[in-house]
Amino acid sequence: MRFASKQDFLQTIDKEWTKLSDYLEKITDEEMLLLPLERSGSMARSGDDWSAKDVLAHLHEWHNMTLAWYESGLHGQPDIPAKGYTWKTAPALNHEIYKKYKDYDLEEIRRLFTKTHKKTREIVEILSEAELLTPGQYQWTGKLPLASYFAGSTLSHYRWAFTTIKKIIKNSK
Fold first, then answer.
1. Is the preceding omega at residue 81 within 30 degrees of 0, hence cis?
2. Is residue 119 part of a domain?
3. Among 13, 11, 151, which Cα is nearest to 70's?
4. Rounded distance between C-alpha atoms, residue 173 and residue 170, angstroms
5. DSSP string computed for 89-133
6. In terms of DSSP H, where are the helices of the chain?
7. What is the pLDDT averaged over residues 102-120?
8. Alpha-carbon torsion 46, 51, 54, 59, what sign?
9. Is residue 155 classed exposed, middle or buried when 0-12, 13-18 and 19+ CB atoms within 10 A define those classes?
10. Closest listed residue to residue 43, CA positions, set 144, 165, 173, 143
């Protein structure tokens, strides 16, 4: 995913955040807690029945992981995606995330999700265009720009969440 500028990147994050947020405002608390009648996508791979609340918890934790990658990457090599996991074992990581947050109440998940979104966006905002968009700017990002990692936990994940939550609600009734 390439962006013409830092401003373009931030606008895309904001667009996807707004689309997801506007949709979430239309959903009742009861709908946020509905479980789908059938698993698909990440749920099927992790073996869990995710509600819309669980999707938000998932996004919150991926925000945290991306922020940790960035901080650790300033001083060395971060554990990506997380200590003890590889991209191949990401379904098991997502299962652990689900277990970690499944008993949190909806309002707490909403608060955490909003808080880590804001923190992630603030970090992106303070980075220079070169730090964000230049491939290989950081050793740990390899040939990718830092924006690729932030896009994965923000705008791309928001698109996925929007589609997934709509499907959960549709398939739970």
1. yes
2. yes
3. 151
4. 6
5. GHHHHHHHHHHHHTTS-HHHHHHHHHHHHHHHHHHHHHS-HHHHH
6. 6-25, 29-32, 41-46, 52-73, 90-101, 106-126, 129-133, 146-153, 155-170
7. 98
8. positive
9. buried
10. 165
CATH code where residue 140 lies: 1.20.120.450
Helix, strand or coil, per DSSP, at residue 9: helix
* 67 assigned to some structural domain: yes
pTM over 0.90: yes
State the total domains in the chain: 1
118 HSE (CA, 13 A, CB side): 6
- Domain-located, residue 160: yes
CA separation, residue 132 to residues 34, 67, 140, 142 (Å): 38, 14, 13, 13
User: CA 23 from chain center: how many Å?
Assistant: 17
Domain assignment of residue 1, yes or no: no
Query: What number of residues does the chain have?
Result: 173
Tell me the pLDDT tens digit for each residue of 73-88.
999 999 999 999 999 9
For CA atoms 21, 24, 26, 29, the dihedral sign is negative
Separation CA 58–CA 95 (nearest Å): 10
Rounded distance between C-alpha atoms, residue 72 and residue 164, angstroms: 31
